Amino acid sequence: MAFSSWFSQTYPPAPTFSEDDIPRQNGKVFMVTGGNDGVGLALIKLLYPTGATIYMASRSRSRAKKAISEITSTDPSGTARLKFLHIDLADLPTVHSAAATFSAQEERLDILWNNAGVAVQPFGAKTKQGIEVHMGVNVVAHLLLVKLLLPKLRFAAASSRKNGTRVIWTSSHLMELKAPVGGVNLADVENGGRLSEPGESDDEGLGWTALMGAYTELFAGFSEEITERHQGKELRKPRFDQNSHPFTSRLDARCDLIEVTIHIGSIGFE
Question: What are the alphabetically sorted keywords of the record (predicted)?
């Protein structure tokens, strides 16, 4: 990871894309996993004034209800609908039930933010289905959720502007700093190995806040500068500059990680 990229992500400048750039979203339906805390909560606070229907997909009902009450109290007469959707990404049957509950209530899904995730979990930790917990929560469960919600995403895409229906996968720059070269060897992980190099990330202590992360997700979800041509290999030589990307002046992600991402994406969505 280039020093310039690390520095701009760790000490980001003010965003150039914000909630002021988003038109009204009445009739649109959004979902944010892990939306009751951190970046997800900050994102939903930005989305709520748009008038959309927003699903806060979270594990803890009590924490989600508290967050929803906090948000809706700021505009009791608002046209937006903010709803709790129970999901435990460490337990795949709840992913099925969450998708079924959503599908019974909505005919469309315009944007899905796969925001929830875990990091630095104890060695040997697994999901209820016995999958290594980082892989199970951050990858497998979200991929299943996308697959189950594809009919709703396709329905929305049929009546939306080109590139307006999106699935956003979020991560941390810890991926670039700590991920093994060439990707994770799952056999090693199952035998007690590491998913990343030793070390932890404390973004909040380095000038980064949840709101800054939310602005990045907002940009990914709504900016018209993001199109299908920005997927895959073109990310190796980024075309964004300081005026278009919300924080960094470059998107010089590690090539080995981009190649793995392209491969997984082609399997999951073709």
Answer: NADP, Oxidoreductase
